[in-house]
Fold this sequence. Notes:
The complex is a heterodimer.
Chain A: H1 3-27, H2 40-66, H3 72-82, H4 88-108, H5 110-124, H6 130-151
Helix pairs in contact in A: 1-2, 4-5, 5-6
Chain B: H1 2-12, H2 15-33, H3 39-50, H4 55-80, H5 89-100, H6 104-137, H7 142-160, H8 164-178, E1 181-182, E2 189-190, H9 204-227, H10 240-243, H11 247-269, H12 274-289, H13 301-317, H14 319-325, H15 331-342, H16 351-354, H17 356-387, H18 392-411, H19 414-432, H20 437-460, H21 472-503
Antiparallel strand pairs in B: 1-2
Amino acid sequence: MTRKDNFIYGGIALCSAAFLFWIIPAYTPEYPGYGVAAAVLPNVTVGFILALSVLALAMNIFSYLSAKPASPEKNLSEDSGKAAKVHLRHLVSFIVPSVLLMYAMMWIGFIPAAIAFMLVIQYLCGQRKPVTIVLVALSAAFLVYGAMRYGLGAPMP
Amino acid sequence: MLETVIAGFIDSLQPINLLFVLVGVIAGVIAGAIPGINGPMAIALCIPLSYYMSPLAAISFLVGLNKGAFFGGSISGVLLNTPGTPEAAATTWDGYPLCVQGKGEKALRAALYGSVTGDFFSTVVLILVAAPLATVALYMGPPEIFALICLALTIIAGLGEASLTRGLIAAAAGILIGTIGIESVSALPRLTFGLYQLERGISLIPIGIGMLAFSEIILQLERRIKAGSPECTVSFSSKPEDRYISWAEWRGSAKTLLRSSIAGTVVGALPGLGAPVASFFAYDQAKKNSKTPEEFGKGKLEGIFASESANSSVVAASLIPLFTLGIPGNVAAALLIGAFVVHGMIPGPLMFEQNAQFIYGIYGSLIIASGMLLVVGRVGLTTFCKVVKAPPAILYPCIIFTCIMGSYLAEFSTFDVTLMLFFAFVAYFMRKFDFSHICLIIGFILAPIWETALQQVVIASEHAPYMFFTRPVAMALMAITAYVVIKTGIGKWKSQNIEKNLAA
């Protein structure tokens, strides 16, 4: 258990409490008087998540209190070493063009938007050969359009 | 009865069905051969395409895809020392040393024959076992189904990740997501946040593609940019003894093949354990039972046979709990539930009464897929080897584009694409912080069955929870669940303490 775990379980417990006391009552239909209330399963699952996260937090605190004292520098370095590094910029760099693609398709049409998207994504994936970038972008856009529009009869955006 | 069986097998021999099985097997081998792409990911990407197929062709295509991917995973394992799929990791231990000795073709042939043997064996077991088990399963009522799902989710949550707590939280989150949409009793929207697009519920496509494919590609790219691409060392000797497996080698490995196929089938039939467990277990057993255990890890054919026959046995064996109880054995089987539902069927024991011909059609397709895997593997072995050289800078953008268009294709809705990206985002963080995204997907898929069982229990017991105490099977299943929770919890707590002491 590390400090990171405390933040994760604490965050989950807070979110669960918000669901339990605010979101589920606000967005679940009232009990119609027969059968099972719509809020039963969401309440059971969120209550279960809340109980587990509080239990994990309690165990973390218990193990911290019962552990032998160690130098704070050592604990800190272990924490940072164990934590999986989140490359938020890397993640966002792929999510944002994908979100924009759908809007671009509605504004400028499928083929230009798909070509632009493929150019950007290939660059982000490390492709630096201009001829390859253009050829792959064009072929992917036209191939997918042909397959979806004429092969599967899907209405394209 | 016999007419139904024959009619089912004839259905599986329809040219269009054969074509889709063939396409599925080829696409599966290609997908599996590419490091980082696995069977479930390929299934998630191809489920939208299955909308356009007949139910039998769709399921056969997806099963063929899964079977192909299991063998395909060994190709990159043998040639690059980088297993294409997690279950092929044990294959690399002996496959790559053989490849370095110039016997790559022989190693791949062993992987192919091992895969086909294990796969065929478990298919036969599935055919023999599923129908009788389904008859027994029909006696199970809602309390037993409810308890069984609790047990399955607990086993899946406990085995996958470092912490049982995190696995259970992920499974519960999946169930919560599964409750979004129109609620069946009141017929009113539940947890839709005022968004009308959520009223029809969240379909499997955006969750499957986002969590299994899109997030995986992002993580793959992250690792690749840091580490660079592995070097391909394809070197095939032209000597016949380095290319083909001799009769003596066949005879020497026959026991291992049979033992590993049995082990893989048993492991595959148990929910949650999965192909990697089967593969490592069979490899370990083969080594322990060998007269020359010291040769394992240095290019021993038996090692490849053991690993491949065991992991491929899981494909058909994981359908045993799916067909008999409606509970998926692994994530690929869970995705198949989605495909069944799309085509208007709910997997479970009732299928043997309501869709018997369809079930026998699937059996036929499974056997055909095994045969096709053998033929496709033999004919296209050298061609598939070239797939591992596919440049990631071209491949990954195409997969990302396919993820987006696949999500759109399911309902022709841009909202599904947004959902897919949202779940990819969630899965990225879940995987970074050791929460099992697989548990979330399986929880999501089992949510409707679980809720229906819960509703039936509550209604039948007139809102009194004592019904469980009057049902011995349900009680026993709940007791096993409690035992699994305690045992797994204590085991993981002990291992964490050992790690902590070692670190100190």
